[in-house]
Amino acid sequence: MKKTGLLLSLLTLLWYCGAAQTPVQTDLRSFLPAVGRIEAAGYDSHVELRWPAVSGAESYAVYLLRDGKKSLRGETPNLYYLDFVAGLGRNAVYTYRVAALGADGKQLSETPQVSAAISDFSDEQLQQMVQRYTFRYFWDFADPLTGLAYERSNDKRADCITTGGSGFGVMGIVAGVRNGFVTRPEAVARLTKIVGALEKLPRFHGAWAHWYNTRTGQPYHFSEKDNGGDLVETAFLVQGLLAAQGYFDGNDAAEKALRDRIEQLWREVEWSHYTQGQNALYWHWSPDYGFAMNHPIKGYDETFVTYILAAASPTFPIDKKVYDDCWVNRKEGEFFCATDFYGIMLPLGKRAQMGGPLFWVHYSYTGLDPRGLADRFANYWEQNRRYTLVDRAYCIDNPYRWVGYGPDFWGLTACDALPEGYRAHTPGVGEDFGTIAPTAALSSMPYTPEESMAVLKNLYRNLGSVAFGIMGFYDAVNLSLGEPRSTESYIAIDQGPILVMIENHRNATVWNAFMKKNDIRRGLDRLGFTINHKTIEYTK
Question: What per-residue string of b and e applies to 330-339 under the rule 16 or more CB within 10 Å gives b?
Fold first, then answer.
């Protein structure tokens, strides 16, 4: 047996012995913390109800008590219900009871009545509400074994955790502390658990796999030959870890230990191994297939931060020529766009896709601050703003005449398609199918605050009963299928940027934490970047 195979087997055994007896939480009916009595909370346009489980109940009927009448609002197997009531009257108080129903549909019991008021929210209150709900995906719905994020809420593999999505979730925990959703000690304890899990998971020249089975601790194959290190997903994860390291800068023992353990993980990633000794950075390496996938990381796309981190590494850095010769894709129309779309000159992007899907200007910039950031190819703040505005302008133009597209319903990106499938939706021919992903416009909030707020308000106030659920906005919405439909599911890599980028818009919390890292500033300088036309300062 190869040494690598023996090590993986031993790690699997240790993981299994230490964790396999703990159940994996995947049941959406009970993922929220239990409550001891019926509770109601009012927001701008909806009331959230939660109640304790009743023995023998198969479902629960939610009744609204109004004007001496009792009307059924819905029936659910869950222990919660979101009732969108703005259409019944704004700035009003609503009163409820919830009845537990048996398998035969007969009522077993009924809660006492409970009331909550809805009231008009400011833009900032709406943003924080969306953050609060989205935060649940990474806190309440996280894998209980590791604290890492599940790939998606509707995954047939109930034990599949994601590394890149967890990186966004780590940054989301930073946002959660900043907004008071959890306490600082609670967050440090959760992050310590996450770091402990990452220390145990098999790594491949320091890089993590795309997915892992949380029961066994072994990678899930992303494809036949992709059963090892995924450098891009590793970059998203490391981006999150370094942001947490920068934010949790306290002098107590727990925060110091967290920072030290993150530093060790950061230093162990062998970025230079993924060059194969060439002036190129490659996405995958497998202990079984080596570099057989042979996928160079070429721009322009979401992988930008991979090069920043690789150049910033204090232990396994890449040379600037790797960035210049590989990331800067010289193929016609693949990196340099330099094209006018709807009166907007776009410097970089895929010309045939009018730039490309919007996640390309989200993932790398959850931690990496684009404000004033420039190299000889672009000013990245201006690039990202224009890129977003082109997407919006295309949706307003709406050449396929999809229902609903317009100033308050735009945003094409990678998401679950409707009626089915997962794909990268983009402007242009053959990549637009009427599906809008809330993450597209909402994660663009720093670049287009007014335009993104128009989408948020429409999705929530007008389409909330379809588009908004217990962990925030569902992954995708399509209004052209006869009636408004959504996926009614969540994906970690789409939820995370919503939470983090709204936080960066409101407070720049994650940007500031990540950019504190001296290694990052040195790496940017090494690649020839400036900030606000000035040389980047760092400690040598």
Answer: eeeebbbbee
Q: Are 141 and 133 in contact (CB under 8 A)?
A: no
The Cα–Cα gap between 67 and 71 comes to 10
Question: Angle at CA 162, nearest 5°, toward 185 and 499?
Answer: 55
Contact 98, 73 (CB under 8 A): no
Q: CB burial class (10 A; 0-12, 13-18, 19+) of residue 474?
A: buried
Q: Is the pLDDT at 10 greater than 60, yes or no?
A: no
DSSP letters, 524-537, are HHHTT-EETTEEPP
- How far CA 199 is from CA of 74, 80, 170, 265, in Å, comes to 45, 36, 15, 7
Q: How far apart are the first and last CA of the chain?
A: 44
- The tally of CA atoms less than 13 A away on the side-chain side of residue 540 is 3
Ramachandran category for residue 290: left, alpha or beta (phi over 0 → left; psi -120 to 50 → alpha): left
In contact, 505 and 449? CB cutoff 8 Å: yes
Q: Please give the C-alpha separations between residue 143 and each of 64, 138, 213, 516, in angstroms, as whole numbers.
A: 35, 9, 11, 30
Distance CA 318, CA 313 (A): 8
Cα distances from 264 to residues 195, 200, 250, 352, in angstroms, run 10, 13, 18, 42
Query: Which band of pLDDT confidence, cut at 50, 70 and 90, is reported for residue 1?
Result: very low
Q: How many CB atoms lie within 10 A of CB 480?
A: 17
Query: Checking phi first, is residue 29 left (phi over 0); if not, alpha (psi -120 to 50) or beta?
Result: alpha
Question: What torsion do the CA atoms of 176, 497, 78, 191 make, to the nearest 10 degrees?
Answer: -40
On whether the CB atoms of residues 432 and 402 are closer than 8 A, the answer is yes
Write out pLDDT tens, residues 166-224. 999 999 999 999 999 999 999 999 999 999 999 999 999 999 999 999 999 999 988 88
Question: Which has the closest alpha carbon to 387: 299, 468, 474, 473?
Answer: 299
Alpha helices in 69-217 (DSSP H): 123-139, 163-178, 184-200
CB 144 within 8 A of CB 22: yes
